[in-house]
Amino acid sequence: MRKNSVPETQEVVLIGAGIMSATLAVLLKKLYPTLAITVYEKLDVISGESSNAMNNAGTGHAGFCELNYTPQNEDGSIDIKKAIDVASSFELSREFWSYLIKNNLIDNAEDFISATPHLSFVWGKDDVNFLRTRWETITTHPLFKDMEYSEDPEQIAKWIPLVMKDRKPGEPVAATRMESGTDVNYGELTRKILLNLMFNNDIELHIAHEIKDLAKQTDGSWELKVKNLTTKKKFTKKANFVFIGAGGKAITLLEKSNIKEAKGYGGFPVSGEWLVCNNPEVVEQHQAKVYGKAKIGAPPMSVPHLDTRRINGKTTLLFGPFAGFSTKFLKNGSYWDFMGSMRKDNIIPMISAGAHNVPLTKYLIDQVRQSKEDKIATLRDYFPDAKAEDWDEELAGQRVQVIQKDGKGGALKFGTEIVCAQDGSIAGLLGASPGASTAVSIMIGLIQRCFPEQFDSEWKTKIQDMIPSYGRTDLDEAHYLNSRQNTAKILSLIPKTLNTQHKEVASSYVS
């Protein structure tokens, strides 16, 4: 088999029916239409795990309001590199979604994206100074040029009335606001992409099918052992390229692949929980994503936010997520996942990472011990007038943070990591935040690594036809303004109806 090339038999298998597999599937079909793509999903629904709206920790993740993306240096300056990287990647995602809509590859965009301002909110002298310095620094970049800033309680109350109602008089407060923010339901977007591909016979989609094992063959292909969880029938599937987009379980499947590039990786599971508002009158008073500062030791998915979301056509208000610990790698996983992932090559990095992250361990212990009353007390930092009876506790998603071998033994990584075999025949995605919002950028990077010859010779040009911003370094303020204006027109670009058959089938893939 030719190294790093598209296989002659053109068989591709994607494991997991989440936003990553959906994005990779539609990109590959546009780049190489004759590929035979098969998607296997263990659950009996599409996007039932990390991409699900209630499981996804942050539907903003555009870099506008997440303060953990802009750490403060020892000299008081603000490092904005990660925020720029995330915001740039999110712009590519929005540009690609616009392409999909304009070309009737997905429809009814209002089902998955809506205009929702992104705000950062802090209180206390030190944090106000931090936010002011952050605003002064980050607005020098065109992506953030239109960010507003205020320390005026009356102005902030106009932006986020619930947050300012009954707040202690005289307390220093500050907020930044990006009016061009959006709320994205990645579960709905995933379903739209995969179902459209399936109805056009571009992919085979099999739910309730679990990949039990996989092994490299002498001809360079992969043989996957598959179990139909409905019929209990077992069979094998041969593929020349495999993508493992199985959320927290990706690490287990990568270990089973026995590729050397996966050696030394471990995973640390972190669960989450929301407070969900059950009072429509309260929900109607808040139309924004408001992010604060994370507590010391908190993982990125636990950055507190008072978050407006559109889920199944209904506006919902969530606060959290509160972190917890479970030994499961998926919300629908096994309590043996964590122990079962330990191998000779990763046990030392995992122990080492634990020893170097005592604050995280303490934070998780404190979070697990919290009662509902404790969570409501935290909510009142952001919504002083919150009433406990207006809020219900609901389990959020399960994340697995990457542990990677390094010179000190092992390090806990907060982010996403592509693990790719040297010959490009298999790749997997590990990690969590920011994840879904940057899926387009991540999957283009994966394609470039796994198919370098095709990427350099023809695919890069095709990608730029779909996403004009991709690969450009000369982007200015005018470009970003135009990009956002185009994105704002998304809702008016597409047909408003699905045929009856499509609707009936689609409903069976929704959790």
TrEMBL record:
> Which InterPro entries does the record cross-reference, listed alphabetically?
FAD/NAD-bd_sf, MQO
Name the cofactor(s).
Answer: FAD
Q: Does the keyword Transferase apply?
A: no
Establish whether keyword ATP-binding is in the entry. no
Q: Which GO terms describe its biological process?
A: tricarboxylic acid cycle
Enumerate the UniProt keywords alphabetically. Answer: FAD, Flavoprotein, Oxidoreductase, Tricarboxylic acid cycle
> In which domain of life is the source organism classified?
Bacteria
Q: What EC number(s) are associated with this protein in UniProt? A: 1.1.5.4
Question: Cross-referenced SUPFAM superfamilies, in alphabetical order?
Answer: FAD/NAD(P)-binding domain
The broad enzyme category this protein falls into is oxidoreductase
Q: Which reaction does it catalyse?
A: (S)-malate + a quinone = a quinol + oxaloacetate
One GO MF annotation is:
(S)-2-hydroxyglutarate dehydrogenase activity
Q: Which family does it belong to?
A: Belongs to the MQO family.
Q: Which NCBIfam families match?
A: mal_quin_oxido, PRK05257.1-1, PRK05257.1-4, PRK05257.2-1, PRK05257.3-2, PRK13339.1
Query: Which HAMAP family does the record cross-reference, listed alphabetically?
Result: MQO (MF_00212)
State the name under which the record lists this protein.
Probable malate:quinone oxidoreductase
